[in-house]
Specification:
The complex is a heterodimer of chains A (233) and B (286). By secondary structure, chain A is α/β, with parallel strands linked by helices. Chain A has two domains: 33 residues; 187 residues, Rossmann fold. Chain A contains eight helices and six strands, in the order ααβαβαβαββαβαα. In chain A, β5, α6 and β6 form a beta-alpha-beta unit. Chain A starts with a helix and ends with a helix. The chains are: A alpha/beta (233), B alpha/beta (286). Chains A and B meet through loops of A and α8 of B.
Chain lengths: 233, 286
């Protein structure tokens, strides 16, 4: 005889699965619209981004001109919505060339920032222990949420978080982690309580925006080295 | 060797005094400490000079703070050490990054420097002749390597290949001495950063100290073009480019280098740089 309670459980599981799938899809759509705006504007935004890319392509910042050299800090790169390690590769190459040690978050594509926590913890711990210093995280839009969550539990491995483009529903910044913010939207910037750098340009191109790169280099340069306890002894 | 310690510029610097005669301060290069000087070189110089050997901040037995590695500040360390030792004026010899520190010292504290010897070094700034990408990549890919592995890797670009092939045992022995007290990664990184930031090109035309610029024509790390620029910018300078020698010229031809340096330091020639030469050097500085 079939077990009624088991069948009820199955039904509950199915409905839970359906609900959670809907939740995920809803959240994904919300994040996509929040990050890239309404689809109606996408063709215009894409053309603007291409024009920006072409106009900035010869910027001397890419060649390290007028950029102060780094001190070899480990820098963990956290991609934003629909971004991944590949989209941050140009930034990683540039950071390496100016004297830092960029580390990938091991994220193929960021569809849901909650999935980033685990690979990010691993990448952060590995980087900090390998170099013997606290790392800096550079996170983009929804990746900032994941970076903040990870920073809250990994305070002994991270000294600073640089948020490039903010998203909503941000968790609290841990007290022992310094937060620096770079943002394009003046509306968001006006609402932000704390230091913020405002730049012009498309949100989708922040990782290769010369003004952002320049600010990143200045922030990174000012961050003092914090050795892990094992290195201090 | 027994190193003593002096409290200087907010840190403890390890130093040692050898020989007798006029004081000569030796400033070591990137990542190395005072035990890295070739022993025959020290012996030869100690016959004529009172040598002040010390470990740069971040190396050897000196403190290894996480700040203060700007070369101007390391020059301040040296100046503080001279104060501590009651040495009002000394000859200064700097090798590689130590040569940059020596330039900072001579430009910022001209009254403390009698004669200057710059070995395998550069003046920084826009006209610097940089090492090729292959050499840079060797110097920058040292994370995760043991001190011995890192030293072996660096040796491939600092010694001339022929010398390395013929003197493997000697190089290994030298390497073991250098890594006995390895330089921590943060100190090496901060030294490298400071060396990249360094630029004395505008200050050198006003340098008063007679200067010997010494380099090897096979130097791949700091190509000899840099020595030529230094010689152009320093009004009272003498340029010697030794054939067949690389960045480790002092180790590869110790006797020849020691003899050149001693001859230069003991010669009783009066400073030659007149205002005309200074003007020419300033024009070279652009």
């Amino acid at each position: 005889m079939p077990d009624k309670s088991a069948r009820g459980g199955e039904r509950r599981t199915q409905s839970h699965f359906r609900r959670s799938s809907f939740d995920k899809a809803g959240r994904f759509i919300g994040e996509t619209l929040g990050t890239f705006g309404l689809p109606f504007f996408w063709p215009y935004a894409s053309m603007r981004a291409v024009a920006e890319l072409i106009l900035n392509s010869a910027d001397p910042v890419y060649r390290g001109h007028d950029i102060r050299y780094g001190d070899g800090k480990p820098v963990v790169l956290v991609p934003g919505h629909l971004g991944g390690d590949v989209t941050l590769a140009p930034l990683a190459i540039w950071l390496d060339a100016i004297g830092y040690r960029p580390v990938k978050a091991q994220v193929t594509i960021n569809l849901d920032d909650r999935a980033l926590d685990e690979p990010l913890v691993t990448a952060l711990r590995d980087a900090a222990r390998r170099i013997g210093r606290k790392a800096v995280m550079i996170a983009f839009d929804t990746g900032v949420r994941a970076a903040m969550r990870v920073a809250a539990i990994e305070g002994e491995h991270v000294s600073d978080l640089i948020a490039v483009g903010l998203s909503d529903h941000l968790p609290r910044v841990p007290a022992d982690v310094r937060l620096h913010v770079i943002e394009t939207s003046r509306k968001v910037a006006a609402a932000w309580r704390g230091d913020i750098h405002i730049v012009d340009g498309a949100r989708t191109l922040l990782a290769v925006n010369p003004a952002v790169l320049k600010i990143l280099s200045e922030i990174l340069r000012e961050i003092p080295i914090t050795l892990l306890p094992a290195q201090q002894s | 060797m027994t190193l003593r310690r002096a409290h200087v510029n907010g840190i403890q610097l390890a130093y040692e005094i050898r020989g007798s005669g006029p004081p000569l301060v030796l400033v070591m290069g990137y990542r190395l400490n005072s035990r890295a000087w070739p022993s025959e070189f020290i012996t030869a110089l100690a016959r004529r000079f009172t040598l002040v050997l010390f470990d740069n901040r971040g190396t050897g037995m000196s403190d290894k703070p996480t700040s203060g590695y700007a070369l101007a500040n390391i020059a301040k360390d040296v100046c503080g050490l001279l104060d501590f030792l009651n040495v009002p004026r000394a000859h200064v010899l700097g090798y590689s990054m130590g040569g940059a520190v020596a330039q900072e010292l001579a430009c910022r504290y001209p009254e403390r420097v009698h004669k200057l010897v710059l070995c395998a070094t550069l003046c920084g700034g826009p006209r610097t002749v940089y090492a090729g990408p292959a050499v840079i990549s060797v110097m920058r890919s040292l994370v995760g390597l043991s001190a011995h592995e890192a030293a072996e890797r660096i040796a491939t670009v600092t010694y001339a290949p022929a010398y390395l092939a013929q003197n493997r045992e000697r190089v290994d022995e030298q390497m073991l001495r250098e890594i006995a007290e390895p330089t921590p990664l943060h100190a090496a990184d901060l030294q490298f950063q400071a060396f990249v930031d360094f630029d004395s090109s505008r200050a050198l035309p006003d340098l008063r100290a007679p200067t010997l610029v010494l380099t090897g024509d096979q130097d791949r790390l700091i190509p000899p073009g840099n020595a030529k620029i230094l010689a152009k910018l320093i009004p009272d300078s003498r340029l010697v480019i030794l054939p067949g020698l690389a960045h480790r010229a002092l180790w590869e031809a110790t006797e020849e280098c020691a003899s050149l340096i001693v001859d230069f330091l003991v010669e009783a020639k009066k400073p030659q740089a007149d205002e005309g030469k200074r003007q020419e050097a300033r024009a070279n500085a652009g």
